[in-house]
């Protein structure tokens, strides 16, 4: 029996063939003496190419303001540190991932605690609640999770962006779960900073990702070090900073660029439609199984379904799916600890089923048959 | 049942705040092996009708679970009670 992989919200699998091919080719390429040994002489400037492609995916014309990192967590830390704002001046939501919550509650230079906006039973955050807080005049930044990694609910980023702009609040969008599979319009939505990861719906390698910072926003680097540019310079007294320090993950960025090209060639709308169809098919199949309950989500949602069982904890159900049926899901709180009490999933979290554009209905049929068998045979 | 080793589970997050180990066995687990695990105290669940039967022993401080036919079982334990792993392995030896 072949393995069914339904954990794409954690990391996508499989990758497009062109992505694995370029990663191997780059690994075998002779490093050049220039450009920080990135081995790019044969293929031109893959960094710029990657920035431009990602710019298209996240909807910004300022591709040169996209900086690479190891992923969304590093990106969000860099954004929070770089903006130099205290947590007490930040509004965020209960739908956030720990990549947002933990920096805000633990970074030594970010004082206090953020204001948390609640969500409804579908995971939706009301923009009017944000405006009510914004009116108090204490807020400098909003951090919004675009697409929940727990139940897939997509927030109305455009509405939040409009309010943020109205009150002069930095709008930071966490697009970890949406970039690559859901249309994102950073410029149109007036996003000031955006974090993305490379290995989820962007279909690249783990250890890649980045962030976008709108031009003109005062922003300090999280780290200083070698950049391959103007080595005579030691101090940045003029405030013109460099943000990509240390040797860059050239192989990962080449793979990310290839993946971004694949996404653009396929079309984000086409990917979104494909994954939405699979999600709807899954929902229909699983809703028919007694003892299985789908956690509600908004109509607008990404390629994720969370479920709970009448008879098994999420941890046990995922264990059985993996070890008895070779179906990989994810169980628990999904690193988003605050959303669960709002969507009714409780302390044990959920079993999450998450899709990629390569998912087939056969995969879903295998899942549905396994869940039915488990719940028909309740020992 | 002959235990050949233990390894820290990569899935400890599913039992938040607990440690988890996979206890490796020389042979695939049989019904007798599963029965022998019941020396550990706790409620016992055995879903023997499944394609690959699943079992779980659950007490306040630990959860033991696995699937018949696998050469390992999972021992998730509260961080203050990790000695329970050694106790069980000792008792089975």
Keywords:
heterodimer; A: 379 residues; alpha/beta; Aspartate Aminotransferase, domain 2; 2 domains; seven-stranded mixed beta sheet; four-stranded antiparallel beta sheet; 13 strands; B: alpha+beta; 2 helices
Summed up:
Chain A is built from eleven helices and 13 strands. With 379 residues, chain A is α/β, with parallel strands linked by helices. In chain A, β3 (90-93), α4 and β4 form a beta-alpha-beta unit.
Helix-strand layout with pairing:
The complex is a heterodimer of chains A (379) and B (93).
Chain A: E1 4-5, H1 17-28, H2 46-58, E2 66-69, H3 72-83, E3 90-93, H4 98-106, E4 115-117, H5 127-134, E5 141-145, H6 157-166, E6 170-174, E7 193-197, E8 209-213, H7 250-266, H8 268-287, E9 292-294, E10 304-309, H9 314-325, E11 327-328, E12 330-332, H10 340-343, E13 350-354, H11 361-376
Parallel strand pairs in A: 1-11, 3-4, 3-5, 5-6, 6-7
Antiparallel strand pairs in A: 2-8, 7-8, 9-10, 10-13, 12-13
Helix pairs in contact in A: 1-7, 2-7, 3-4, 5-6, 8-11
Chain B: E1 3-8, E2 18-25, H1 31-36, E3 43-47, E4 54-58, E5 62-67, E6 72-78, H2 83-92
CATH architecture designation of the largest domain in chain A: 3-Layer(aba) Sandwich
Helicity level of chain A: 25-40%
Mean pLDDT across the residues of chain A is: 94
Helix share bin of chain B = 10-25%
Low-confidence stretches of chain A: none
The domain count of chain A comes to 2
Subunit arrangement of the protein: heterodimer
Indicate the CATH topology of the largest domain in chain A.
Answer: Aspartate Aminotransferase, domain 2
Name the CATH superfamily assignment of the largest domain in chain A. Type I PLP-dependent aspartate aminotransferase-like (Major domain)
Number of domains of chain B: 1
Total strands of chain B: 6
Q: Could you name the ranges of chain B where pLDDT drops below 50 across 5 or more consecutive residues?
A: none
Q: Proportion of β residues of chain B?
A: 35-45%
**Average pLDDT for all residues of chain B:** 89
The neighbouring-strand order within the major sheet of chain B is 1-2-6-5-4-3
| Main beta-sheet annotation of chain B | 6 strands, antiparallel
């Amino acid at each position: 029996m072949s393995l069914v992989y339904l954990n794409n919200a954690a990391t996508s699998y499989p990758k497009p063939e062109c992505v694995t091919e370029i990663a191997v080719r780059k690994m075998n390429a002779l490093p050049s003496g220039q450009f920080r040994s990135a081995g790019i002489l044969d293929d031109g400037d893959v960094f710029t190419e990657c920035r431009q492609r990602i710019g298209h995916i996240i909807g910004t014309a300022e591709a040169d303001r996209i900086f690479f990192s190891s992923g969304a967590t590093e990106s969000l830390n860099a954004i929070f540190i770089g903006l130099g704002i205290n947590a007490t001046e930040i509004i965020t939501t209960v739908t956030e991932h720990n990549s947002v919550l933990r920096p805000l509650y633990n970074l030594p230079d970010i004082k206090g605690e953020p204001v948390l906006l609640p969500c409804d039973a579908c995971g939706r955050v009301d923009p009017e609640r944000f405006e009510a807080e914004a009116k108090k005049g204490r807020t400098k930044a909003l951090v919004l999770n675009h697409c929940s990694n727990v139940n897939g609910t997509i927030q109305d980023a455009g509405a939040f962006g409009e309010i943020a702009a109205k009150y002069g609040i930095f709008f930071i969008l966490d697009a970890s779960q949406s970039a690559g599979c859901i249309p994102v319009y950073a410029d149109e939505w007036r996003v000031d900073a955006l974090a993305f990861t490379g290995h989820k719906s962007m279909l690249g390698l783990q250890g890649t990702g980045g962030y976008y910072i709108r031009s003109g926003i005062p922003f300090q680097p999280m780290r200083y070090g070698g950049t391959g540019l103007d080595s005579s310079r030691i101090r940045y007294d003029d405030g013109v900073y460099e943000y990509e320090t240390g040797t860059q993950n050239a192989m990962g960025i080449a793979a990310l660029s290839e993946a971004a090209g694949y996404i653009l060639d396929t079309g984000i709308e086409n990917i979104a439609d494909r994954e939405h169809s699979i999600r709807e098919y899954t929902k229909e199949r699983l809703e028919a199984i007694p003892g299985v309950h789908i956690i509600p989500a908004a109509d607008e949602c990404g390629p994720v379904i969370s479920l709970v069982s009448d008879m098994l904890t999420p941890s046990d159900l995922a264990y059985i799916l993996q070890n008895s049926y070779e179906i990989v899901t994810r169980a628990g709180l999904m690193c988003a600890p605050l959303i669960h009490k709002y969507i009714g999933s409780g302390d044990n979290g959920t079993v999450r089923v998450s899709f990629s554009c390569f998912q087939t209905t056969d995969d879903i049929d295998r899942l549905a048959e396994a869940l039915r068998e488990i719940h028909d045979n309740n020992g | 049942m002959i235990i050949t080793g233990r390894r820290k589970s990569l899935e400890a997050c599913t039992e938040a705040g607990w440690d988890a180990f996979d206890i490796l066995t020389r042979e695939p687990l049989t019904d007798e092996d599963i029965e022998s695990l019941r020396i550990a105290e706790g409620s016992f669940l055995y879903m023997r009708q499944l394609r690959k039967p699943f079992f779980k022993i659950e007490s306040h401080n630990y959860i033991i679970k696995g699937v018949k036919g696998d050469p390992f079982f999972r021992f998730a334990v509260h961080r203050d009670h990790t000695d329970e792993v050694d106790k069980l392995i000792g008792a089975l030896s």
